[in-house]
Amino acid sequence: MLRGEHWAVLGPNGCGKTSLLKALTGYLTPSAGRITLLGRTYGETDWRELRLKVGLVTSALQASIPPAEPARETVMSGRYAQLDLWARTTRADAAAAARLLRFVGAAHLAEREWVYLSQGERQRVLIARSLMARPRLLILDEPCAGLDPVAREQFLNFVDGLARRPRGPALVLVTHHVEEITPAFTHALLLKSGAVLAAGPKARTVTTEALSAVFGVRVAIRTRRDRYQSELRLSPSRKFR
After folding, report:
1. H or E stretch including 40?
2. From the CB of residue 46, how many other CB atoms can be counted at a distance below 10 Å?
3. Nearest to 137 by CA among 9, 58, 24
4. Disulfide check for 77: which of 16, 85, 160, 229 has CB 3.0–4.6 Å away?
5. Which pTM value belongs to this model?
């Protein structure tokens, strides 16, 4: 992954997307191969320190955030890689959290407790939290899950703008849906059964042939206004899995 690249990771349930993220962030030891992240190699670097340079937005974090924690504190916890903030924070932390909440369009939520935030509001707060430590890499793990169509499009527009920022982090978007790959994403990685089926510039990777091979059904891909659209052609007798 080179400077200026933003990657989308696609594949069906059970293909290895979550395992890949766990390996990248050092929570799962690879059984084979070599992992290099931000110029550091797994096994030769303190991964706990490296994690501070990697932002992660995932629904898996939500259950660990105290219901009564105000959004401002949730954002500040990102600087210390903590959930349920206990570190002694500073005025600079509070100012940075306020600035990031404004940046993600959630300044009005600063004092609202986590339990009273909508799913879309939680995703914005988690992005602000992930940016608190000024990460060089931001991983978005199915960030649109649970969002209504309007909130999803608003969120994707925000992500696209973030990808275009000159000093913004590199982005990795994990998704099931090609419709969520905005124009700012440059590359794609397709996984199937724990292996890489295709990887490279998205124009050569996100294709009808490749997606059909990944999902095991005919997936017709077309573009409209620089966004992907897909159409599944299922056999009437195909069983739900």
Report:
1. strand 40-41
2. 9
3. 24
4. 85
5. 0.84
Tell me the three state secondary structure of residue 218.
strand
d(CA 208, CA 222): 8
Cα–Cα dist 145/123, whole Å: 10
Model confidence pLDDT, tens digit, residues 62-121:
888 999 999 999 999 988 878 888 888 899 999 999 999 998 889 999 999 999 999 889
Q: Phi and psi at residue 91, in whole multiples of 5°?
A: -60, -35
How far apart, in Å, are the Cα atoms of 53 and each of 137, 212, 223?
7, 35, 34
| Phi, psi angle pair for 189, to nearest 5° | -125, 125
If we measure between CA atoms, which residue out of 184, 62, 185, 183 comes closest to residue 123? 62
Angle at Cα 48 formed by Cα 155 and Cα 113, nearest 5°? Answer: 40
How confident is the model over 230-234, as a mean pLDDT? 81
